[in-house]
Structures are given as C-alpha cells and as structure tokens.
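subagent[fold] <- orchestrator: predict structure for attached chain, return tokens only, no commentary.
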Amino acid sequence: MRGIKPGIRLSAAACITGAWLVAVLAGCSTVDRLRGPKEGASTDVEARNVAPEDPLARPIQAGWTSARATHCGFVFNPDQLRADFLASEQRSGVPPEQMDKIAKAYDYTRQSVLDSIKNNNDYCNKERTAAIRSDLNRNLAGDFSTTARMAR
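subagent[fold] -> orchestrator:
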C-alpha cells in the first residue's frame, strides 16, 4: 500500500474488515440454517427469563437447573434427572410427536447454559446455590413446574 494516502489506506482496511465480518456473519447464518431452528434457551439469562406460558418452559427450566447444578458441583445424576423429566412429560400426556422437541429443548438448554457459565468463577455464590438447591431438590422429587429462579 505504498504511495497511498493514510486516509485511503484506513478506508481500504475498513472495507476489508467489513467484508470479512459480513462473510463471517453469513457463515454463521448458514450454519444455523443447517442445524435447524434453536430449541430451548441458549444462555443462562435467556433460560431464567423464559415465560411460564412458553410451551418449552418446563424443558428449558429443567435443563437450566441441571446445568447450573452441574456447574456448581451438586452431587446428582444428570442423566437420571433427564430421564425422570422426560418420563414425567410423557405421563402428563405430551403427544409422542412432541417428545423429541421437548428432549431437544432440554438438551440444547443444558449444554448452552453450561457453555455460557463455564468460565464464570463467581457464578456459584451463596444466594444462587440456595436457589439451585431448592430447584434441584424440587426436580429430583418429580416436580418440574416452571418456578425455577436465579436466586432468592
């Protein structure tokens, strides 16, 4: 870029950066289209704020509770909790064609929340662990109602 005025050099760099950003974002969009629509909550905040009337609220909150309890070191069997949740959904009369969507919402939320909080060393504070303990104990007892909370 020798012989080009500094302002033009900066504009060229901005154009190249902009083109790169557009390509990256377009690539993400393509990956999302291949993966299909997102089922569940992708972050801790999104899971916490799911509306109780949302048809996926129960799997989102159960997956969220499992992820938070796992991250904070609670001793429980996450696979058994998932199996118990899915059995509870089946017993409640959820049609078989909806069970796959519910399982995907649970799994997507659990993994996404784990990924979103994994580097937060301050996540498991006293108030939050008390809320997680309450939600986890409720879930382990078979109550998967949509009353999970971030902290009290």
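orchestrator: received. Logging for downstream: Helices lie at 6-35, 44-48, 57-71, 78-91, 96-117, 126-140. The chain has two domains: 1-36, 44-140.
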